[in-house]
Amino acid sequence: MSGFAPAKVNLTLRVTGSRADGYHLLDSLAVFAGVGDVVRAEPAEGLTLSLAGPGAGALAAEPDNLVLRAARALAAAAGVPARAAISLEKHLPVASGIGGGSADAAAALRVLDGLWGTGLGPARLRAIAAGLGADVPVCVESRPMRMRGVGEVLDAVPPLPPFGLLLANPRLALATPAVFKARAPGFSAEADYPDRWADAAALAEWLRPLGNDLQDAAIALCPPIADVLAAIAAQPGCLLARMSGSGATCFGLFGTPAAAEAAAAALPASWWRWGGATAPASP
Ligand SMILES: C[C@@](CO)(OP(=O)(O)O)[C@H](O)COP(=O)(O)OP(=O)(O)OC[C@H]1O[C@@H](n2ccc(N)nc2=O)[C@H](O)[C@@H]1O
Ligand SMILES: Nc1ncnc2c1ncn2[C@@H]1O[C@H](COP(=O)(O)OP(=O)(O)O)[C@@H](O)[C@H]1O
């Protein structure tokens, strides 16, 4: 069995408060890109994980891969032995604000729920996901959603117009806690959602003032992000250039997937870059 683990893109990210445990309350519109990792699982006696793909090297030293943590958490919740030979084909840059590890964990939950016949369904999978990381519940859904709370409060959003997405990362990892720590003090109000957006340009205009409250802090820690944003904004047809999550990956919003793909090809080849459409809904 296999599952696609698409990149999560925070089109806007507002920090609206903080909790006593140090976590922050967010208001974010998350969408999923047509690029991602692939998680496969087969029956086996024990629990193993093999890594492949261009990003495998970056994860080789990871002592506790989120895929294995997800497998153990699902087995414990369902009361079954954790038995599977799992493979992870890694394409997304690690620690880059597009939730690659979270997407892998979510895909592992979906795939193993099928392989083990545990049939826990979306609500219980989401609860297990919340214990694995703030971004994992939205990745279980892998469709456009508004994230609130620390990420576990999910709401459907009005239908999005068609658009193209470009992703670019200067191949510099950025740790999420460091970016939250470097943020200037203060909180933003929650966003007001319209009933619909007429087209991609209207979506970009709505997103523009909402911003990403982590972007300035991330640029302070990792100045090349500013160059990535400028290069994306300079591409023909770019409607909005912004950082996703805690960075360093930035995205560009375009009218069509073809325009985003052409723009990605024009960016420096030394960067990780991708352009195309949003992810198809997961089964
Ligand atoms: C910022 C976001 C926005 O979608 O994306 P990424 O940059 O990770 O892609 C997420 O909230 C990240 O989610 P995730 O990466 O799963 O976070 P976790 O592992 O739960 O937490 C890592 C650390 O980030 C900080 N954190 C995370 C989420 C949150 N709502 N408030 C926080 O302050 C905390 O310092 C926490 O210890
Ligand atoms: N399968 C995985 N893919 C990526 N990172 C993983 C994975 N498993 C564990 N990690 C750890 O999680 C951290 C955050 O990774 P990632 O989800 O890629 O970050 P972000 O949410 O900022 O995009 C990494 O630095 C790595 O140590």
UniProtKB/TrEMBL annotation:
Keywords attached to this entry: ATP-binding, Isoprene biosynthesis, Kinase, Nucleotide-binding, Transferase
Gene3D superfamilies: 3.30.230.10, GHMP kinase, C-terminal domain
Binding site for ATP: P93, V94, A95, S96, G97, I98, G99, G100, G101, S102, A103
GO biological process terms, semicolon-separated: isopentenyl diphosphate biosynthetic process, methylerythritol 4-phosphate pathway; terpenoid biosynthetic process
Provenance organism: Falsiroseomonas algicola
Domain of life of the organism encoding this protein: Bacteria
Family the entry assigns: Belongs to the GHMP kinase family. IspE subfamily.
Active site: K8, D135
EC number: 2.7.1.148
UniProt xrefs under InterPro entries: GHMP_kinase_C_dom (IPR013750), GHMP_kinase_C_sf (IPR036554), GHMP_kinase_N_dom (IPR006204), IspE (IPR004424), Ribosomal_Su5_D2-typ_SF (IPR020568), Ribsml_uS5_D2-typ_fold_subgr (IPR014721)
ATP-binding found in the keyword field: yes
Record Pfam families: GHMP_kinases_C, GHMP_kinases_N
SUPFAM superfamilies tied to this protein: GHMP Kinase, C-terminal domain, Ribosomal protein S5 domain 2-like
Gene behind the chain: ispE
Purpose of the protein: Catalyzes the phosphorylation of the position 2 hydroxy group of 4-diphosphocytidyl-2C-methyl-D-erythritol.
Protein name: 4-diphosphocytidyl-2-C-methyl-D-erythritol kinase
Metabolic or biological pathway: Isoprenoid biosynthesis; isopentenyl diphosphate biosynthesis via DXP pathway; isopentenyl diphosphate from 1-deoxy-D-xylulose 5-phosphate: step 3/6
Segments forming domain GHMP kinase N-terminal: 65-140
A GO term, aspect molecular function: ATP binding
Catalytic activity of the protein: 4-CDP-2-C-methyl-D-erythritol + ATP = 4-CDP-2-C-methyl-D-erythritol 2-phosphate + ADP + H(+)
Domain GHMP kinase C-terminal residues, every copy: 203-270
